[in-house]
Amino acid sequence: MAIRPFRFEVAEARSFKHPHFPNIQKHIFLVPAARLPKEIPQKANLREATGMNRNVYKDVRESLRGNEALPGSFDLLNLGITIIGEDVKALDKRVFEVLIDDDYGIANGGHTANLIWECQDDDTIAEGQHVEVKIITGVEGPNEHTMRVDIARGQNTGIAVKPQSIFELDGAFQGIKDVVAPFEWSNDIAYKESDSSEIDVRELISALEIINVIDFPNRSGKHPIAAYEKWSTPLKKYGDDFKENRDEPGGRKYAKFEPLLPQVLELYDIIRRDFLRIYSKEVSNQAAKLKIVEDAPKKSGVFQFRFAGLEPHDRRLTKGAAYPILGSFRNYVRINPDSDQAEWVGGFDNVKVVWGEIGKDLVLETREAVKSIGNAPDVLGKNRNHWANLYRTVENHFLRSEIERLTAGGA
């Protein structure tokens, strides 16, 4: 067996002996994610660290980058990495040498480690991110290999089947599939957790929740913040809606909004792509320095805007900052009393014209929010006052337009 040393720089560390196996020690390190040592062996991990495009791991990646949660909170949201090691030596108060056998190493958290290393290469790890590393040493004796295998097996029992996989099996997403079928990007939607496709079905359901004027009526003061804050909430509502109307799929609440889905996604792309241009023109050319603006990973170099068919760009507005803006356009959604279906007031072309007219105001409102409540996209995405302020900006424009239309009609 080959045993190699790995240098761990830590923010915090503690160690203790196992109460039943006196030779075994557990060492808990809080490691800056940007300095997690590379090439740690992973043969003890029974779940191979493959399928890195699975959507559950996309969520972890975005959390690490600070786009899906507060920067600095990664270790609080992630289960961390467990390593079977041979020995741990303190080189300094915050530096440890860990000896690891090439035949063992990471017993759980291989995907987390690989995502961290990927983001290290891309230099996309948000400031303050740490990962918890648990190192188990002293597993030795006549039953050494058996115990190591048992540890590895026990560490890999935590991933449950995700609800979207169950809904897909049940046929709940057929309404979405029918609506998006004409678009080339429809083949890149991940409906199950195990799918490696680029577009997560939960993102599409959240887009439907954004325009859900049944649960969040216009002028009610209620806003669909859960569309950003907790994807599981709209997903559950969508699934429950399907089950309650299984015998009459057309009676589903979300069936009223599904025909507008491609256009909502198009508007989402337009907002994310256009924000930088407006900010640079109206505020300053320092938009790229905003934390609510994200850089494309070095591997791909650019972001694609496939829903709107726009030119790729190396930067875009983060989801946390884009969702409240997108949600403000709920002002232009209504349920047609004759068809009982959702529609855009004045048509979708009119909505795009409105963005052109008041995009500047929404960008400036976002800038003020950044100044008052912080530059983190997760803070903007969850701030109720920010959602309300953006909504009122579009509402005022909508009401002025209606008054002008009625006045012109009366004349």
Notes on the protein architecture:
The chain is of the alpha+beta class and about 400 residues long. It has 2 domains: about 5-155, no CATH class; about 165-410, no CATH class. Helices cover about 40% and strands about 20% of the residues. It contains 14 helices and 16 strands. The protein has helices at about 55-65, 75, 110-120, 145-155, 165-170, 175-180, 200-210, 225-230, 230-245, 260-280, 320-330, 350-375, 375-380, 385-410; strands at about 5-10, 10-15, 25-30, 80-85, 85-90, 95-100, 105-110, 130-135, 190, 200, 295, 305, 310-315, 315, 335, 340-345. The strands form 6 sheets. It has a 5-stranded mixed beta sheet. A 3-stranded antiparallel beta sheet has the order 1-6-5, with no helix packed on it. The chain has a two-stranded parallel sheet with strand order 9-10. A hairpin with a 7-residue loop joins strand 2 and strand 3 (about 25-30). Helix 1 packs across helix 3 (about 110-120). The longest helix has 27 residues, at about 385-410. It is elongated, with a radius of gyration of 25 Å. The mean pLDDT is about 90.
- Number of discrete helical segments: 14
SS elements, strand count:
16
Please identify the oligomeric state: single chain
Portion in strands: 15-25%
Major beta sheet, specifics? 5 strands, mixed
The low-confidence parts are none
When the domains are counted, the total is 2
The strand order across the widest sheet is: 2-3-8-4-7
Report the helical percentage: 40-55%
Would you tell me the structural class of the helices and strands? alpha+beta
Mean pLDDT: 89
Radius of gyration: 25 Å
N-to-C CA distance: 90 Å
What is the global morphology? elongated
The H/E string reads EEEHHEEEEHEHHHEEHHHHEEEEHEEHHH
